Amino acid sequence: MANPSFWYYPTDSSLVEIQLPGPLTEFTPVPLRDRRTAWTLAGTPMSVVHSGRMRVTITLGPFNDTGSFEHLARKLDTMSSHLERGLPVSFAVDREKCWLSSCVTTPGSTVVTYGTNTCAAYNASASFTTGDIMAIESPNPEGHREYAHVAGLALTDPEFTASEGVQYAPETQPLMLRHRDFYPVLYMPEDQLGRAIVVHDHRLLFTLDLTLEQGLDGQVALVNGTDWAEMAEGLFGDTPVLHGSGLSEDIDRLAAPGSSLQSAVAAPLGLQGFDPNDWARFRADTGRSRDSS
């Protein structure tokens, strides 16, 4: 098993990787769901689900600032500034498993067909293998999530056999396939502001204690920024639109190959040439516009 790693783009073209020198002390993913429930007079709950995501806690330490851990606290504190401003990072428990792609499934079938890894810029040799657990996710607001155990990989075709048949039949596309312990788009939630991600004892011993939340819309943009221009119009416009069957004709909304995380997320929202330094402001404005609609 390789080391854990963070990746982020402090500018649109400069990729930074922070590789942790050893295994995590703790890694805890917790599912979150934005659900509103009302009860009928007969006592039946009626629920509406708006979105879902994962919340992950990443802990390493205590460690000292020597040897392979030298300068680690400083690098993490620098990344904290990026997170505090509402910008995304990626994280993998095993840097050799930083896999995110599209996929095609059939309920009841054990065969899962997958596309190319959209995060190959992080590690060109990243892959998954027999025995790995893969997360199959659909976009919000549907937000299906299920986990498939890889029982075998095809020798020639881009597909694997799961140990059990796929259960869900998501209606919203694209379906996304990622390694269970790889989170391509993570943000710092507001309740984590005002606290250090690296705590220390007189700068002799350090501990990384970081909680982040998954940005599922960002994963969609990374996997298929083309068709999801249509979905973005539905989310932020007046008319709800589901995934289109063909390529978008709006070429300005395509994420160019090799785009940074911020650019790939921004492109399908019609923000080509968007300054990543304004990303936090955009997310705040978008949230306000949806709250007021």
Annotation keywords:
8-stranded antiparallel sheet; globular; 6-stranded antiparallel barrel; 2 domains; alpha+beta; 293 residues
Please, could you describe this protein's structure?
This protein has 293 residues and is of the alpha+beta class. The chain has two domains: 5-214, no CATH class; 216-292, no CATH class. It has five helices and 14 strands. The protein has helices spanning 72-84, 216-224, 228-236, 261-266, 279-292, and strands spanning 5-8, 16-19, 26-39, 45-63, 89-92, 100-104, 111-114, 133-137, 145-153, 159-162, 176-179, 182-187, 198-201, 205-214. Strands 1, 2, 3, 4, 5, 12, 13 and 14 form an eight-stranded antiparallel beta sheet that branches. The chain has a six-stranded antiparallel β-barrel with strand order 6-7-10-9-8-11. The longest helix is centred in the C-terminal third of the chain and has 14 residues, at 279-292. The N and C termini lie far apart (47 Å). The model is unreliable at 226-259 and 268-274 (pLDDT under 50).
